[in-house]
Amino acid sequence: MVTCEGKMDPTRRDVMALVGGLAGAQVVPGLAWAGAPGHSLTAAPAEVQLAPGDYPKTRVWAYGGQVPGPVLRQQQGEMFEARLVNGLEQETTVHWHGLRLPNAMDGVPGMTQAAVRPGESFDYRFALRDAGTFWYHPHANSLEQISRGLAGVLVVDEAEPPEVDAEEILVLDDWRLTEDAQLHPEFGNRHDMSHAGRLGNYITVNGVGSCGAAIRGVRGCGCGW
Questions:
Q1: Greatest CA separation found in the chain?
Q2: Is 76 helix (H, G, I), strand (E, B) or coil?
Q3: CA-CA distance, 133 to 177, in Å (whole number)?
Q4: Using CA atoms, how far apart are residues 102 and 106, in angstroms rounded to an integer?
Q5: Residue-wise pLDDT tens digits, 5-51
Q6: What is the rounded distance in angstroms from the CA atom of residue 185 to the CA atom of residue 94?
Q7: Taking the model in full, what pTM does it have?
Q8: Are strands 79-86 and 39-48 parallel, antiparallel or unpaired?
Q9: Peptide bond preceding 37 in cis form (omega within 30 of 0)
Q10: Rounded-to-integer distance, Cα 97 and Cα 154, Å
């Protein structure tokens, strides 16, 4: 993969080769897999158990009712098709981060497409030109929509995938939670913007709480990581 600065990053094949010696890996918790082809993503409010079980569920915005969103997976060279259904009370889109695709499919409202209004849908369709591990997320009110949980992983397998013993996808996220395990309602303040964005006080891996981190504002642990 070539970054915006023109530097060459390790490819997915390189990364998989490094972990190819791992044996006995377990199924990664917290990730659900969507069927392919013909994906469907519904962005809507949901409640998920981010904090330990003695806390209430956290109100989030999610694809398919889960955070992170479903893992979408297809093979390089195939035609990718996904329908976004907007169940939010504000406009949204999906941006397919890092993929080479037609401009009209890039998911930037006001530039490459009209924003998808509440209750409406939009069909994305493009050829998968590059293999790799990518992510998808909104580009409408991104700071709030992503912070509320709208993001997921897209894996494009090589035509001849590397031989490995196991594969794991880990999505790390930091959430800014209040003491009752709800998302802090303030988004986009100047302090956050001057410090590289909204920094959270509670860490999850694939939507499961991290026991080892120092958690400010959420008591206790008892989670699976």
A1: 49
A2: coil
A3: 28
A4: 7
A5: 444 455 555 544 444 443 333 344 445 445 444 899 999 999 999 99
A6: 23
A7: 0.78
A8: parallel
A9: yes
A10: 9
